[in-house]
Amino acid sequence: MNTADLLAAQPDATPTPDTRGDTLGDTGDLDRHSALPMYHQLKHRIIEDIARLNLRPGDVLPGEHRLCEQFGVSRTVVRQALSQLEHQGVIDRVKGKGTFVAYPKTPESLVHTLTGLFEEVTARGGHVHSDVRRQEVVPADDEVADALGVALSTPVVAIDRLRFIDSEPWSWTTTYLPYEVGALVLNEDLRDQSLYALLATHGVRAVRGVRSAEASSADPEQSALLGVNVGQALLVLRSVGYDELDRPMEYFIAYHRGDRSRFEFQLTASPDDQSTAALRHTGTS
After folding, report:
1. pLDDT exceeds cutoff 90 at 183
2. CA dist 52 → 2, 221, 242 (Å)
3. Helices in the chain by DSSP H: which ranges?
4. Residues 123, 62: one domain?
């Protein structure tokens, strides 16, 4: 069973952290005669024990000192194994609190495709629900006016949504549309349907986009909405989508939980320089 399958097999319910994994099973010694590095053996033994003991996301795992004792290895070996497990999304290490089985992260290709979060998740059998916090006409501020290519204070439609995947808060997105585009969906119910799909029924489609991604820390408002601690890592996406006539048709800012999302980038070589990789851009509604 690979790492992705192992984590996908864990129950969906959010558990109360417990200590069932604080001491792993009957471990014994690692094979010191194997050609496989010790840290590699330890990493896979931890993955096997998580599955065998049916540990759930949030369950406590042994710390570095306990693992050294259990497996008879050095702290260097343990740290290398845990570092790789954390990088692979198998565990979470929280300073001052311990090591935990990680919650599965949903891979999202929103950085390189023109499908939105709704299409991305439903294609995998998940369910997206939006708490529409605001859906109204507002004057464009400097940032919005610049992104949409309109004059300052021009009326635009703002749609503010807290997005849930399978009932868990996932992202907070504010989308701004030029008034002539936004008016088409101003009175639509966006709780359980795609904004892109609705716009498409009116003949409005994004054909290209320009997107940026940056790291941020949750402020008190973001913390309360997304169910994370203040200061926890977020990924901030900003994007401008363009229609067939190359007119800006959408600008959004989306704050994604860093502990639930993993963004995937597809790279292609530039035709003029095979050593150069180019990112394809996207939109997310």
Report:
1. yes
2. 13, 39, 50
3. 3-8, 38-52, 64-71, 75-87, 117-122, 142-148, 179-182, 195-201, 220-226
4. no
Same domain, 84 and 111: no
The DSSP secondary-structure symbol of 26 reads S
Residue ranges making up the domain that contains 59:
3-101
Lowest-pLDDT range of 86-90, 130-134, 161-165, 276-280: 276-280
Helix (H), strand (E) at residue 130: strand 128-139
Residue 223 sits in a domain of what CATH number? 3.40.1410.10
Q: Which SS3 state, helix, strand or coil, does residue 233 take? A: strand
- Identify whether the C-beta of residue 191 lies closer than 8 Å to the C-beta of residue 130: yes
Tell me which H or E stretch contains 2. none
Closest CA to 103 of 94, 113, 112: 94
> In angstroms, what CA-CA distances link 25 with 43, 80, 142, 236, 268?
14, 21, 59, 40, 45
Question: What pLDDT score does 274 carry?
Answer: 46
* Residue where the block lists tokens 């851009």: 281
- Boundary of a domain, candidates 48, 67, 101: 101
Verify that 155 and 254 share a domain, yes or no: yes
Q: How many CB atoms lie within 10 A of CB 161?
A: 25
Residues of the chain by 3-state class (helix, strand, coil), percent to 5: 25, 30, 45
Q: Look at residue 285 and tell me if it is in a domain.
A: no
